[in-house]
Structure formats: structure tokens, C-alpha cells
Amino acid sequence: MIDRRRFLARGFSGGLALPLIGAATGVYAIGVEPNFILRVKRYSLTPPGWPAGLRLRFAVISDIHAGEPFMGAARIRRIAETANALNPDAVLLLGDFNAGHFFVTRAVEPQQIGEAFSVLRAPLGCFAILGNHDWWHGPLLTSPSDGTVAIRRALRQAGIAVLENDAVALAKDGQKFWIVGLADQLIDAMAQIDANAQKLGGDDLDGALAQVSDDAPAILLAHEPFIFPAVPDRVALTLCGHTHGGQVNLPLLGPVVGDLRFGPAYVYGHVAQGGRHMIISGGLGESIAPVRLLRPPEIVEIELGAPVDETARLAGF
Hints:
By secondary structure, this protein is of the alpha/beta class.
């Protein structure tokens, strides 16, 4: 007879180490991290020119990619309840509600998504933009697109305002600020492979910002971070999703595929260029495959008008 310790020692010395590590990593990346871990990633900053005394807290939800068995309506509701527990002034949803990969056993319909999000509560309201997957197809990748009609209706019935090249004026403690929502930058999926395409999306940054009628601070919601080089200093903070933070991050190497797809500067986290600031959420769901590694699903909590701080903690799930 051989005890467990000796068996493991012989296995590792006999060349089993890499296969065992690979199998364990696969189980974790497919079965554990995407489905059973939820963290709250916190950013605290004061952008240049931010009004003294204006403190705002946002809960940011991005890239749900709904679909059974990984992201069902019950899980979406738990995510919404976790966002409520942060006591945000407003909840901001950054798009991609539809499924993002083929490994889905059953669709989660827009009405179910809206019902799950109907529990969201924030004194200044809940605001959403749409993402590329909301335009490209229906609840499943194989479903025909309805031009976002159903998801728009579901979100509005849940009390969530859908912004598309729109600006909304809000106020807290008598101090005004703006939420600006940009239309998706990749509405036309086929145009991505057309070198002669002049316009991929419906975004109109100039038109949206033209609705901001004073010098109160503006927060820009944009599903993809590609717009950031064109965002003027007038915008205090840009919030984006889409990249899933690389989704798969290799030890020591980081989000290799994410770097190649989006560019190393626009994959994840707090990006500061000059006096301009952008935060890219790692999101909650997956695209291409139901796998995450070293980038667990996250809700982003943002405090503006507070000392700089970037931390993360696990949330109950």
C-alpha cells in the first residue's frame, strides 16, 4: 500500500505535475471563477476641476451576457442586490446584456433581465447604455437581432433610463452634474471586416456633449473604450466595459489576448492620460467561451470627490 503523500510525490517527480496543474487551472477557470466569485472593485478619485464638496458614489454593472446555466435571472438579481448594498447615488449599466458565447443551454430573455434588474434602487436613478452584442443578435448568438427593441423595453419597464447619445442633468446636495450616454461604437458587426467602412457605430460624441449646457462635471458612459482618445478634457470621467478586463489573465504575462485585441492601454482598470480619466470594468459575464482566469466577475464602485484609492474585496454571492 502507498499513502497519499507518497503517491503525490511520485506523481510530481514522474511528470504528472504539469497535467495536474493544467487540469486544476481549467476546472477553476471554467467552473469556479466565472460562476462562484464576485468582487467589488473600488475606485476613489477626484478628477481635475471637480467641484469642492460634491461627493458621488456609483455602482457600475457591465457585460452581463445573460444565458443559462452560467448567468441566469436569479444570478443577475443577486448581482443587482449586491449593487444596492453599496448604497450608490446612481447605478450605471454599460451594456452587453445578451449572451456572448455559444455555450448556453437556454436563453435568458430581455423581459427576464429587466425583471431581475427591477430590484435596483438608487436615489438619483439607474441609467444604461447598450453594447455591441445587444445590437448584433438576440438573447442567443444564433438569435436574429430585433434592433435592441426588446432589451430597451425591458430596461425601461424596470425603471432604467436607456441613453443613446443623450445627456441627463442630475444634482446632489444642490450641486449639478451630467450623465452622458454614448450609442454603441460597433453596431454594424459586418463593417468591422470592411476596410472601406466609414462608420461602424451609432456613437455621436459631439452631439451628446452638445446637450451639456453648462460647465457642471460630466460623466461619460461608453461601452467600448476606443472612444477615449477623442474625449475632451470637458469630461470628468469616462466609464467603459466591453473588454472583460482581458477575461483570461496569465500569471506574469497578464491579459495577452486582451492586449492584442484592444491594445495594452485599453484593457482594464484606471487609465489616466494627461488630465483625462477612464475606468474600464472587468464586467461580469464572458464572451467567446465561458472562462475567466485571474479576472473574476466584478461590480465597480466609484467614489468621486474623495481621496485616491483603488481596492477590491469579495462580495457575498
